[in-house]
## 1
Amino acid sequence: MTPRLLGVLAPVVTPFHPDLSPDAGRLIEHCKWLLACDVGLAPFGTTSEANSLSVSEKRELLERLVAAGLPRSQMMPGTGCCSITDSIALTRHAVSHGVAGCLMLPPFYYKGVTEEGLYRNYASIIEAVGDQRLRIYLYHIPPVAQVGISLALIERLLRDFPGVIAGIKDSSGDWENTRSMIDRFSRGGFDVFVGSEALLLANMRAGGAGCISATANVNPEAIGKLYADWASPDADAAQARLNEVRTTFQKYPMIAALKQTIAQQRSDADWARLRPPLTEMAPASAERLQADLTSIGFSPEPTTAVAS
Amino acid sequence: MTPRLLGVLAPVVTPFHPDLSPDAGRLIEHCKWLLACDVGLAPFGTTSEANSLSVSEKRELLERLVAAGLPRSQMMPGTGCCSITDSIALTRHAVSHGVAGCLMLPPFYYKGVTEEGLYRNYASIIEAVGDQRLRIYLYHIPPVAQVGISLALIERLLRDFPGVIAGIKDSSGDWENTRSMIDRFSRGGFDVFVGSEALLLANMRAGGAGCISATANVNPEAIGKLYADWASPDADAAQARLNEVRTTFQKYPMIAALKQTIAQQRSDADWARLRPPLTEMAPASAERLQADLTSIGFSPEPTTAVAS
């Protein structure tokens, strides 16, 4: 049986070599650290620059993660592409490698597409993959993909593919939307993850499943702790503290700021690199970020505890 | 020397088999008809559902077009993807097959990216392909890609890669933008194509290079004729007539309406098929389209003149 994913996952940032090829070694090391902080792995998400990677690069990286012995029960790789043939190929590959779930963007090039067209996209992928182990987490991120996942689409997919449609990552930032998803679908085992830890406590109180958040790449332990202790009296204070860190990162281009912070934590400048069209932080911005983080007393968790 | 592309090109619609695999045979037949109407080939554009195809599907289709003996001097395939490795692979492949130019979308997943990031995308592709035959036509289509090509970006690319940056397809629909591109860059041999024949006459009068338009898939002869005769006294009337046809198609989902019309012209229902997330027209809509076209006296050009 495919294990159920719950809790906090990081859309794992993807390190690159100087020639911009993916750096599997540093990726594995980072994943081990996240797992040691009780944070699961959602590689090939928006924060992972997944859409800046080719299908074969994503396949190879997943194979490297699995070959390194990282727990597939903690993996929810992104496998949704613009092209349905790419989505099928990546999803089939991920399922055959035993991952617990696949996080699937809708095809995002054409805008204003119909619910019927999005339904057919997911239905065709499910039928083509044809594997009982498949668990799909829909990925709703309208600010970036522009193409979203409506409640009506979820309802139709759940009705036709119960057991396969396992949940959603809601990165709309619209709490009313998240709450509607929980209210309407979670009783049937549909797991609703929020796309930011800023909504983690609200999500847990409402019956959600956890969060999949960019900042879990740099602040995993604290976010994981709020997930574990959300029912405790200290939860609101812990949430406020998480928000302070998140808000600081949000003042900067998020992915560049996360990579810059990891580079700083590990004294490893290679981590700061991004693929076009994203760009690394200018030195002056990087210094301001560092100063901002210091001013709120954010101390990156130790990275040396995990042998690579 | 790479031949210069001028005139009218069709972003060739991609036919699909019942299993949704690309149908190279029907594609070649359609391309031959377009060429017989003096319209060049821009396969793998937005209208081609290019982003619904995998890299290997696009490579194979281009190989089939070349193997069929279609003139590479009349080909401007789309090779711009979200992933820079995909863009490099496709562009290298197209150039190695001797196409006259490559039409390149910017990477379109991340929104609000910097000019520097987009510059690096194109610069890295040019350097990685490293082939003197490469001619890039930038693809500005903000309504769909959301990520656009600014005048400042064109200026910088032209300065650093003269001879490689050959022109642009402006699908903004904003004539002031098109005119600015012509005024600022066309003297240096930068060819500005409009993305719709509705602006063809204006473009030719201002010094533009032609148009690359979806509706050239169904109305190639008339559009090609206006390009040839744009300086004649009848040009305004011809433009008005083209606009009438274009406006009729614009009342429907464009790609589905084009394919439906081709299916009707050729009595070949297989042509009406689309890949998700796009969907074919419902029968009632298809009938309305047909009635609308009949009411304006639009008679599809004969398709039997070209042996397949």
## 2
Amino acid sequence: MAKGDVLIRVAVDAMGGDYAPGEVVAGAVDAARRGGVQVIVVGDPDAVRGELARHDIAGLPVVPMPSQGTILEEEQPAIALRQKPKASVVVATGMVKAGHADACVTMGSTGAAMAAAAVMLGVMPGIGRPALGGPVLGMAPRTIILDLGANVDCRPAQLVSFAAIGEVFARLFWEVDNPRIALLSVGSETGKGNRQVRETTELLAASGLNFVGNVEADDLPNGAAEVVVCDGFVGNIVMKLTEGAGAALGRRIAERLDGAMQQDEIDALAQEVRSLHNVVESHGGGPLLGVKGVSVVGHGRAKADAVSLAIGTAVRAVEIGFTSKVSEQLLSLQERPGSST
Amino acid sequence: MAKGDVLIRVAVDAMGGDYAPGEVVAGAVDAARRGGVQVIVVGDPDAVRGELARHDIAGLPVVPMPSQGTILEEEQPAIALRQKPKASVVVATGMVKAGHADACVTMGSTGAAMAAAAVMLGVMPGIGRPALGGPVLGMAPRTIILDLGANVDCRPAQLVSFAAIGEVFARLFWEVDNPRIALLSVGSETGKGNRQVRETTELLAASGLNFVGNVEADDLPNGAAEVVVCDGFVGNIVMKLTEGAGAALGRRIAERLDGAMQQDEIDALAQEVRSLHNVVESHGGGPLLGVKGVSVVGHGRAKADAVSLAIGTAVRAVEIGFTSKVSEQLLSLQERPGSST
């Protein structure tokens, strides 16, 4: 929680996400009530005023901040950013840039959040685009997989940078002493994998990081490492397949058990199967990685609880100095002799 | 089944697979008993004789054929092929080459089967290495995904060839009239995906094939297309993740239901979950794709039933003229104006 009386200031994009602004504002109020954070609710003034009126926020550190419009999921982020300079996610990110907030949080378009962060906060050297990462499989909640879709064509040196970021993530967020780093491949033996993976394997082995080698996808559910690195194309497929298979399997199990158990028990089991296949939905959201500032992107389907969790993640990222620790880690990686970054 | 009195001759590698030679020979005998096929059991003479003695094969079309040694999973296929020219998979493939068998089947090292097929039978133009493909998700048993791991660095034109092969597979094996072909990507919109996928999308759109666009991984369990094309690196990760998640989920569900249901019902459900996530194990095996001859590779863990199924697949491939149909399809693809293959 906050040190002394200083509240960590989080700008929340009230207009982004499937259940905005209602659930987002509710989540923001909940986070403020739990303490340690001043929530700046960024959105169309009427909408924000209307939603805040539904809650008793007397004495709570909740501040409205006007914006105009929203960038939608289907818009091309770079273009939308120029066309809607006052959109909620742009204003929220701009507050971090200007030093008026310590972090921003959105449940809206990931692409828009990434574009805003890249343009306004800046990306660390050697990263390319801000990376996405987090636990994907419910059976391995302490494995961060990155990138999950931001960078679909990666150079090997970029994958090494992701490894370094993941290492900081696991060490600071999960307090794992010496996180194991693995590279996702199609065979655990060195020499297996595609060109990109074979080159990355060599770089990782020489990186000074705690590289434990390559893992195959069937080892992911077993928590084979705290950090699993892959390019965003592969990571996104892993994430989406997990999600899709979990949903389909939940339905199938519910059908299969129909009549054999109480309906509420069946529902609970089907839901558990879905969650085991979808941590993204249950853990609230993660920070954009490699960005010079804290910008947390949550799931579009987030309801109040998940929004509150995402704000909590942003607070924690600020408290542990995530941004500067990542920056130092990348710098020390680049200073190693023979580094090609 | 066989036309008239002519039996289709299948050379079975009796020494390959986790349960060889016992289960493999049992499966071979079973296939012979079901009719339409002459089974040539290739293996170390003593081992084959010993196993055949366990069955009543009087009057059955089962013929032993001596070989010497086996290529193991952990051996480097190209090297092993030179060092063990009389190994069971080499002899079995050689019989197809020499016209003494119509097809060969192995449960042994996939790499060895591929290497033997590539060297002895030859690969069709534009394919690179023999491709692996088949249904992967039990929820989508009529979706062939290819490549599943043989070609980990693919040119776009190669992916188009895979699409053409998959089309023939779905049309002939599953009797689907006009199979839908999709490309696995990270967004269904054109323009999304990595460089390889974006280039392949254009080629497929101009290929004359029934290309329905790009699918995301969360759509795979829904049977979004009969043919899903991806490079072998991605396909292998899809296959392994499916398998690993199914196994982990089966265990988890079994724990979760412990005491709430009869143990045998729990076991059946857990097994069903695993199978839904693992068609490879239950459907016996598939032909190497793009090879000039029928070579079927089954799962290493195959028992007699699965071996018999794999032999059935080989028989069917011969009956439907799979090899020549694929060859014609690839040729007509290459003859299209503007083809870059």
